[in-house]
């Protein structure tokens, strides 16, 4: 029995010695690896010193700085987890705002491109329409005056001239200067009457100004006809011959525009389809009468 016990005890110690040897072998391998890393680090450090040209005093200063930084880290102590959480939240919010800012900048660029595209489109359509209106204006002007010519021009002012006249809104004027866009201040009319040396509206008579207005009005109607048009005694300054020309225009355009005309001119009344009149009875009350041409009845 004693022999068996000794054998078991011997085997137990042998196994323990095997485990210890295995641990020592692993530890020895770790030390060898660490020695190799340290040797490499030392070699790299020596190369860095040689490359940077550091002196012993420089190395001493760096060592002191390392000790100082370590002391500062120790004085800080443990980092509060709440601060880390708050920092992460602030960083996430900053990232979100940065993304939104980038989106807004992109939207601003896209909007500016859209505005420029719309401006080009509107400018093109305006120029085409203005040309058509100008052609029609010259046509109706010659028709109303029996000759001559007329032309509409966009009235523009220089920035300097407007700044002299206006005291405010200088920033808008400067912006227009930078964008090289003319300031459209209205329409000028250049005209030439037959057998007269007149090229300005200011020297025309009341009847002639009315004819120019009628020519401009029907030029607009011919390019973009409205469903109906109300004219309040526009023919008042016209003589009989010009009233006939005006009546002819109304009759010509009546198939696509409904005209409601307030007039006392018999020549204009003759081309109307329906006449409405207001009379006063003996008792002082007003009475509305209407006459439809083509029908003998008076309503």
Describe the structure.
Among the domains are: 2-77, no CATH class; 225-299, Rossmann fold (3-Layer(aba) Sandwich), CATH 3.40.50.300. With 299 residues, it is α+β, with helices and mostly antiparallel strands. The model is unreliable at 295-299 (pLDDT under 50). Helix 7 links the parallel strand 3 (228-232) and strand 4. It contains eight helices and six strands, in the order H-H-H-E-H-H-E-H-E-H-E-H-E-E. It is rod-shaped.
Number of strands: 6
Treating each run of at least 4 consecutive H or I residues as one helix, how many helices? 8
**Large-scale geometry:** rod-shaped
Determine the oligomeric state from the structure: single chain
Radius of gyration: 50 Å
Q: Please state the structural category.
A: alpha+beta
Strand content: 5-15%
The H/E string reads HHHEHHEHEHEHEE
Please give the order of strands in the largest beta sheet: 1-2
Largest sheet: 2 strands, antiparallel
How much helical structure, as a percent, in the residues?
55-70%
Distance between the termini: 149 Å
- List low-pLDDT spans: 295-299
Mean pLDDT: 78
Quick overview:
InterPro entries: P-loop_NTPase, RecF/RecN/SMC_N. With 299 residues, this protein is of the alpha+beta class.
């Amino acid at each position: 029995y004693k022999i068996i016990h000794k054998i078991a005890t011997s085997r137990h110690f042998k196994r323990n010695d095997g485990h210890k040897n295995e641990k020592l072998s692993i530890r020895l391998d770790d030390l060898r690896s660490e020695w190799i890393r340290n040797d490499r680090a030392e070699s790299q450090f020596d190369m860095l010193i040689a490359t940077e040209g550091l002196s012993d005093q420089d190395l001493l200063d760096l060592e002191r700085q390392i000790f100082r930084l370590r002391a500062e880290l120790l004085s800080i102590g443990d980092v509060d987890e709440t601060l880390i959480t708050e920092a992460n939240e602030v960083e996430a919010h900053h990232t979100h705002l940065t993304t939104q800012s980038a989106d807004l900048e992109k939207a601003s660029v896209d909007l500016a491109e859209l505005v420029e595209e719309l401006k080009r489109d509107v400018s093109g359509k305006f120029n085409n329409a203005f040309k058509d209106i100008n052609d029609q204006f010259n046509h109706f002007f010659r028709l109303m005056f029996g000759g001559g010519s007329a032309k509409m021009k966009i009235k523009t002012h220089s920035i300097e001239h407007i700044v002299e006249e206006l005291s405010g809104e200088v920033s808008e004027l400067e912006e227009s200067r930078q964008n090289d866009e003319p300031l459209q201040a209205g329409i000028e009319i250049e005209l030439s009457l037959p057998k007269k040396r007149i090229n300005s509206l200011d020297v025309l008579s009341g009847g002639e100004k009315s004819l120019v207005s009628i020519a401009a009005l029907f030029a607009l109607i011919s390019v973009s006809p409205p469903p109906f048009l109300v004219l309040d005694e526009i023919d008042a300054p016209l003589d009989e011959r010009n009233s006939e020309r005006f009546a002819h225009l109304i009759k010509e355009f009546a198939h696509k525009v409904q005209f409601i005309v307030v007039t006392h001119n018999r020549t204009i009344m003759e081309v109307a389809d329906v006449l409405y009149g207001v009379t006063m009875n003996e008792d002082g009350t007003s009475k509305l009468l209407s006459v439809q041409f083509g029908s003998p009845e008076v309503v």
